[in-house]
Amino acid sequence: MRRKIHALALIGLAALAGCATIPPPIQLLDSAQAEIRAARNAGAATTAPESLAAAERRLAAAQQSSANGDNGKATDKAEEAEAAAATARARAEEARLGQQIQQQTALNESLKVDLQRRQAAAAAAQQAAVAPAAPASSAAPASGASAGQVNLPAIQLGQPVTPSPASSAAQPPVSASSTGQSGPGVQP
């Protein structure tokens, strides 16, 4: 029994000696404080107040343990504070990104509706443009022409325009003298 007590005493002295040699976790405390600031800047005070409060409580406990000389406990609490602050910052970022996604989704939906409206208007305008050009009778269109197309005569530069038989019956030829302009091949 005496040996057990002696062994336990040695273990206890070794543990106390180990605690005394742990340096204060100054860098960990600074890192936890920086992470808390980053979480606050990310908006964690409104989006993740519980996580931010937990980080601040753990940092205060770490600072108190360090002041009391319990550097092992101070290290543990500083690490916990840093992790809680990182969680708060991640939740704040998640909330910010979720809001951006909602805004972009709403914008995409409004653009989609606008596109559909414009496509419908373009289709209606195209039908309106084709409808007057269609022949009144249900006869088949001339060879090579489809519904809505108009056959125009070929134009050669330097040559007077000669109306096609179909167009000359519909409209009388316009002379250059009646328009006040001179055309190719017409002398003023």
How would you characterize this protein structure?
- This protein has 188 residues and is mostly helical.
- It has a domain of 107 residues.
- It is built from seven helices and no strands.
- Helix 2 packs antiparallel against helix 4 and helix 2 packs parallel to helix 5.
- The longest helix has 63 residues.
- It is rod-shaped.
- It starts with a helix and ends in a 9-residue tail after the last helix.
- About 4% of the residues have low confidence.
The outline comes out as: rod-shaped
Q: SSE string, helix = H, strand = E? A: HHHHHHH
Q: Class by helix and strand content?
A: mainly alpha
- Cα(first) to Cα(last) distance is 137 Å
Question: Biggest sheet, open or closed, and with what strands and sense?
Answer: none
- For the residues shown, what is the average pLDDT? 78
Helix content: over 70%
Count every helix, treating DSSP H or I runs of 4 or more residues as helices.
7
Radius of gyration computed on alpha carbons:
44 Å
Portion in strands: under 5%
Number of strands: 0
Identify low-pLDDT runs. 175-181
